[in-house]
Amino acid sequence: MTLAEVARAVLKRLRDPEADFELQALVRNQPESLWLTRRGQRLLLRVLGAGGGELGWDESAFRDLDPDRVFSQLAEGIDLVSLFVGGPLPDELIGLFIPDESGPAVRYRAEWEGWREFERWLAQPESGSAVSNNKG
Amino acid sequence: MAGVSEKQSKALRELLGLRTAPEWQRRVQSLDRELVEGRRPDLTADEYEALLAPLIRLRLRRALMHALEDGVMSSPAAAQILGYLSRAHRDAYLEDLLDGSLFPNLASPDFTFLRDIKQRLHQDVQQLRSAVAPPAD
Question: What is the pLDDT of residue A102?
Fold first, then answer.
């Protein structure tokens, strides 16, 4: 999947073509993590260093990968995917997403224990019920 | 005090919302919750060693967000935080922002809010240290 394909699939599941979201992928044994942010029509892929600083792609541990397909290329190595959205959420996603307390802004977070699991959720029909893999 | 510009505020909100991998650890989050709720944390010496840095980072992140939302962050401080974190080197840590030897201007009036945060976090560290269970015989 390219970044645009990931974003399209997320928006489809959220049933909101205009939704802003943030997606974080944690890679096994890797202190650096990947963040995909959608703001308006803009998609931004960032690498966060171990201490919270934003790294340039060429300085990051992922520099040898194709940034546009990095999630698919790393798929088996990704052991946590978190998706943050502002809401409101479709009824069937309430329960999967929980309020996130990492900052004063209200947002909701859902987690999957791997990229493949996240892909399966993305591929579910829109009317499907929420999966039960939320770690709370 | 010059307030944070809208552009700075937007960039900071985005950047501070990005947690590092260790901050997601369940144990880090449960210790954070205990501190937030005023409960006495219960942790081992090994946990203290392993989890202190991400726990303090998580709490610093939230405190900075609140400072931003409450309008007590100055524009020079916002610029310093953004500058340090947005073009970071691999060894840059959020908690470095509290280090007066790295940032001597921490003593200036523009950074009063950050000194207050540092003091609160210092109290957290003391509380966590005092809560460490002695090793079992």
Answer: 63
